[in-house]
From TrEMBL:
The lineage of its organism: Bacteria, Bacillati, Actinomycetota, Actinomycetes, Micromonosporales. This is Radical SAM protein. SMART domains: Elp3. The keyword Metal-binding applies. The keyword Methyltransferase does not apply. NCBIfam families: rSAM_phane_AMC. InterPro entries: Aldolase_TIM (IPR013785), Elp3/MiaA/NifB-like_rSAM (IPR006638), rSAM (IPR007197), rSAM_sf (IPR058240), Sulphatase_maturase_rSAM (IPR023867). Keywords: Iron, Iron-sulfur, Metal-binding, S-adenosyl-L-methionine. Residues 15-231 form the Radical SAM core domain. It holds the Pfam family Radical_SAM. PROSITE patterns: RADICAL_SAM.
């Protein structure tokens, strides 16, 4: 089913206009989850308004011609406080869509009114039922689950739609069904599922037996098909790809150039492709930054981003994937941070992450389809 990578034309290098920008209003997080990748989550380094103004100068131009999003991501973005976040959002024009990725523990009525007033779309991080959230703890080491659920209840009370993001560290049989049923009850509109990744300061092994991970994804598809009320991000993308392969249009699915997904750190430095690299340094690659918006406009930084040495190496890695991996048309070459944190460089190809979350995902969706084929089909 996977279309051979080398038959896919098109995608070459980085686009100069992103589809969204990630902003880090503070490095601080009020939780201390065991699998978190963030290096400075105990420190409260706040973004000055001058950084937001500089980013908005480019974003407002892009948003005047196309749909454009700013994603507020931390640390825990709500830890910056409503007043601060409002000041940082103020330079962006009314056509810019604002999203926030939050652990939900700080959400209360006042935050819900803020989200409604700013038409902010909310995505909460929660890993499933209480027992699956044991790794999500406060700075004092206490379970955060009750606070997460209280925050979600506030969203529901205010009639605010929300997405959810779940990390799975044990994809054993039964987990996918449990997970999907939980999120049906929670009431989210969109669900993203990540198998835990080895990245940033999280060095835990993420290798799993291939049949176990494939079966996890197949089970998730089965659960979803019984009640497809939630948009299940990974599964819907897989099904779109499968349909395009059958139609002979799979080569058109990938964008012609990689979305640079710039992350603007609290201090204005810009890291492209992988938010997870922000805040790290390496003797070979430096701080991974392509520049600072306090010195150079964001659109100029992005126009030159391919010259950042590690970015060039990553593009070589994407080309290596294109010529060697049968899953390239589905995956597009994976994520820079996974290559770096697993392989120590950017021009390698397969990682545990891409096995867990690309290869086994597609295999799982196809396994489900095979198991449910009618005998006469
Ligand atoms: S990242 Fe992995 S799945 Fe994706 S194209 Fe490269 S080798 Fe294939």
């Amino acid at each position: 089913m996977a279309a051979r990578g080398r038959s896919l034309g098109g995608m070459r290098g980085l686009a100069t206009v992103p589809s969204y920008v990630v902003m880090q209003p503070t490095t601080l997080c009020n939780l201390d989850c065991a699998y978190c990748y963030l290096p400075f989550r105990a420190a409260d380094r706040q973004m000055p308004v001058a950084v937001a103004e500089a980013v908005a100068a480019s974003v407002n131009r892009w948003a005047s011609t196309d749909r454009f999003s700013v994603v507020w991501h931390g640390g825990e973005p709500l830890a910056a406080g409503r007043e601060r976040l409002a000041e940082l959002m103020a330079p962006f024009g009314p056509e810019v869509e604002h999203h926030v990725q939050t652990n939900a523990t700080l959400i209360d009525d006042a935050w819900c009114e803020f989200f409604a007033r700013h038409r902010m779309r909310v995505s909460v991080s929660v890993d499933g039922p209480r027992d699956r959230n044991g790794e999500r703890v406060t700075r004092a080491g206490r379970p955060a689950y009750d606070r997460i659920v209280r925050g979600v209840a506030a969203l529901r009370r205010h009639g605010l739609p929300f997405s959810a993001l779940a990390v799975v560290n044990d994809p054993s049989p039964g987990r996918a069904t449990e997970l999907y049923d939980y999120f049906l009850d929670l009431g989210c509109e969109v669900l993203g599922v990540n198998i835990e990744e080895t990245e940033g300061v999280n060095t835990r092994d993420n290798a799993h037996e291939a049949p176990v991970v494939t079966a996890f994804w197949a089970e998730l598809v089965a659960a979803w098909r019984r009640n497809p009320r939630i948009h299940l991000r990974e599964v819907e993308w897989s099904l779109r790809y499968a349909a395009a392969v059958l139609d002979g249009t799979a080569g058109d699915l990938l964008p012609t150039r990689l979305d640079p997904i710039p992350t603007v750190a609290y201090d204005g430095s810009v890291v492209v492709l992988s938010p997870e690299l922000a805040g790290f340094t390496d003797p070979r690659y430096g701080d991974f930054s392509s520049g600072s918006v306090l010195a150079t406009p964001l659109h100029t930084i992005l126009a030159d981003a391919e010259r950042t040495p590690w970015v060039g190496e990553f593009i070589d890695g994407v080309e290596a994937c294109r010529s060697s991996c049968p899953y390239f048309g589905f995956c597009g070459g994976g994520h820079a941070a996974n290559r770096y944190f697993e392989l120590g460089r950017f021009d390698g190809t397969e990682t545990e992450h891409c096995r867990n979350s690309k290869i086994r995902l597609l295999e799982g969706v196809l396994e489900h389809a095979r198991d449910h084929q009618s005998p006469g089909a």
